Amino acid sequence: MISFFSFFLLSLMCVKNSTCHVHYLSLPILSLAGNHNTWSIRNRHHGRSPIKARKTQYTLEDHYQGQDFLDQWNFFSNDDPTHGLVDYQSKGDAVDKGLAYVQGDGTAVLKVDNSTWLGSGQNRASVRISTKKKYNGGLFIADIYTMPHGCSLWPAYWSVGSNWPNGGEIDILEGVNMQTNNQLTVHSSEGCSIVKDVVSKLVSADISVGNLQCASSGTDNTGCAFHQDDTNSYGHGFNINGGGVFAHLWNSQGITVWFFTRSQIPSDITSGNPNPDNWGTPSAFWAADSCSMDHFSDHALVFDTTLCGDWAGATFSGDGCPGTCSDYIKDPSNFHTAHWKLNYVSVYQSS
Ligand SMILES: *[C@@H]1O[C@H](CO)[C@@H](O)[C@H](O)[C@H]1NC(C)=O
What we know:
It is built from ten helices and 20 strands. It is of the alpha+beta class. It has a single domain, classed as Sandwich (Jelly Rolls), CATH 2.60.120. The two termini are 23 Å apart. It binds 2-acetamido-2-deoxy-beta-D-glucopyranose. 2-acetamido-2-deoxy-beta-D-glucopyranose (NAG) binds at residues 114-115, 336, 339.
């Protein structure tokens, strides 16, 4: 067991660093445990290593584009678990109503209904899709042109395990109402948190660390969060710049998220040879030290747009929206821009 673990740690260091340090093998195992996220500092202090290792290669596992979003993702058509005032559509209904389709240029579109007047108490038709395949780590790259935003809307690109919160939840792109900045959030079972002193040094200067406790307990599902100050990251600011890429790496070190507005997408992403070592300081980092990756398993990736509900409904007035959320959703003209336009989602595994 110990020797297997030693081998594992050596592999880990080789994978994360561009070089391997063979003397790590002689360190007591415990001195490494709980210290993985200091790798970059340690690497800097050691200078050149006697052993050259190839840098981590990422191999494409899945590439979802165009019709794949309709064929390889499930359409969730139950009641919204977050109590949104939506009727999520089956694939057949979503396609028939023009709420899920592929444009001539290959862009996949997921819409909120914008043609139906609602009576009191009626829900608006919307779409929630999730990958048929489940993931237990990897490098996930989502290239998004346009996202829904505005009063009553609560769009999200996220991933979730089964038996929530036990399988964990990773919210990559999410917000409500007139919000102009993205919030990145993790929800989990007990024993997962952000340690602000550690993490605030590792994320971009334009990120603020929010709630530190990731575990959901009782009715407190706040989760632990990072806030992007950059208004390119969400809503109108995201859309007028042609959207961008959210990339997240989920590996033994933790979960790391980068955001690139369209004009700044690294060429290694565009060319299909992603190299996170070149992407600079991330927008969010949940370190495995303070949140074991055991909290996350069998994740499906999800895109959805809900309305009102536990978050957008609760903050509707406070966010400067008129009247009540349930009245606001009656008028279809409030939803002419309520759609996702997706270029692709790619999933890579390290090799
Ligand atoms: C719904 O929104 C689209 C733009 O996304 C627009 O082209 C269409 O005319 C709208 N539908 C109605 C009934 O206004």
